[in-house]
Amino acid sequence: MPEDTDGPYVVGASGHRLCVGSAGERAQELVRAGGTSASSRRLRDAVLALAPWDVVVHIGADDGETVVGADARTISFGSNSRVLLFLRRSMKVSEGSIDLREVALGAKEGEARFVVDTVVVPCRTLDAGPTPGPDYSACVKIDVEGAEFDVLAGARSLTAGSRAWAIIIEVLHMDPFEKARLATDYTMRVMDRRTGDLVVVPPASPQRVAELLDSAWLHSQDAVLTARDAA
């Protein structure tokens, strides 16, 4: 793993250097893969190509794979002090321009207890901003380890708007009922590993949705959500 004065790094899909910790499962995965997995990178690129996004938002800041090098105004929300340290280093070595907001996002304004650092942090909603305006088009990545539905609840103005939006959300850890809920409330797509196409997951019973997402030909770690009438 290469090192410089800012610490260890890998080269991400964007070609930018991403600083990572030398210990921990996440860091080790990044080192082994040379960044995020090939399937995750293909999905990210497919969603970024869906529209000329006004803003790219990452909720649950990581090392920068999602946001460093994005061709749009970029906002990153995060409250894990250790991860934010590496993101700042990624921004520095890649000369990236990211609007970094050190707050948690959830269903309402207030405070939230962040388990990793065992501290209380400010909590905001995505609808509260900062945003370019009420009609902006947004590509959003949510990576919040189980708090996804809280973040979605705080983004109702965004998802009810008339402009284009898309949300990349990790669903691998969700139970079948949560996955079926997403397929009902939104147009939900997952990526065909063979072609890179985004395939609609139709509204169905939790068992049927789970069976579909278990298909080996699908990248079922993440799903893409768009407006219900966008299928």
Structural class: alpha/beta
Note poorly predicted spans.
1-5
Helix content: 25-40%
Gyration radius (Cα, Å) is 17 Å
Helix and strand pattern: EEEHHEEHEEEEEHHEHEEHE
Which CATH architecture of the largest domain would you pick? 3-Layer(aba) Sandwich
Which word captures the global form? Answer: globular
C-alpha end-to-end distance: 43 Å
For the biggest β-sheet, the strand order reads 6-5-4-10-11-14-12-13
Determine the strand fraction and express it as a percent band: 25-35%
CATH class of the largest domain: Alpha Beta
The tally of structural domains comes to: 2
- Characterize the biggest β-sheet: 8 strands, mixed
Number of helices: 7
CATH level-3 fold name of the largest domain: Rossmann fold
Task: Kindly state the number of beta strands.
Answer: 14
Mean of pLDDT: 77
Give a quick precis of the structure.
It is built from seven helices and 14 strands. Helices cover 27% and strands 29% of the residues.
Can you walk me through this structure?
The N and C termini lie far apart (43 Å). The protein folds into 2 domains: 3-170, Rossmann fold; 171-231, no CATH class. With 231 residues, the protein is an alpha/beta fold. Strands 6-5-4-10-11-14-12-13 form an 8-stranded mixed sheet, sandwiched between helices. A hairpin with a 5-residue loop joins strand 2 (7-11) and strand 3. It is globular and about 40 Å long. 39% of the residues are buried. It is 27% helix and 29% strand. The longest helix has 14 residues, at 81-94. This is Methyltransferase FkbM domain-containing protein. Residues 106-179 form the Methyltransferase FkbM domain.
